[in-house]
Amino acid sequence: MNKLLLSLCISGLLVGCVSTKSPTGRSQTLLFSDAQMQQMGAQSFAAMKKDQKISQNKSKTAYVNCIAKRITAVLPDQGQQWEVVLFESDQVNAFALPGGHIGVYTGLLNVAVNQDQLATVMGHEVAHVLAQHGNEQVSRSQLTGIGMQVADAALGASGVANKDLYMAGLGLGSQVGIILPFGRSQESEADMVGLELMAKAGFNPQESVTLWQNMAKAGGSQGPELLSTHPSHSHRIEDLQAAQMQVMPLYTQARKQSLTECKING
Known about the structure:
Strand content: 5-15%
Distance between the termini: 51 Å
Shape: globular
Strand order of the largest sheet: 3-5-4
């Protein structure tokens, strides 16, 4: 698929193509500009805030914001402002969108039981944005009927009528019933980039292993929704364990700083 997209870019059939490398050196072909992706992210987030219940629990909201603030503080783009919303739902899920938007569901707090475990998930989701995985998804789907509608929505040609399609392209398919799941390579990349982000932010990367073990146990045989939209493969925990030696020095260095401990009060 990437080779076909690249061929179309070279031939000039798709305007605005960019061939680049992901944070781990994987080849990416991106058809959409940062402005277009930010538009998709903003419209999707606005729709979710309108359609879904926002938690009124001030302590839990402050807790989630505390973790998000520490993670986003170590991102390369310090000019980006991030909006964080805690949604009231039993879903064991979270997401991040281009343009600086993070959503967390209260159900996740029952599985990610401390700041380090929740930082694992939030770092993973922010890593998807950092690695431009949403752009990859809608770029790949550009060659399909769904992709053309996503493109129309992204360019503002169809307004919010096609919001479900571009929300699916951004990894929100479970909420709208249209699944364009991130691939295994993207998931592994988000795991590794997210692990580095949480370590730099002073969250214990060893807790990432415990978090995914908790995830595997949650929800019985089906597992939590986070695992259905972000497929877990048999080597995920092994990969995280193997990466510990690489990221622990980052965590040790971060802990030398004065960090705000994130916790739920009351």
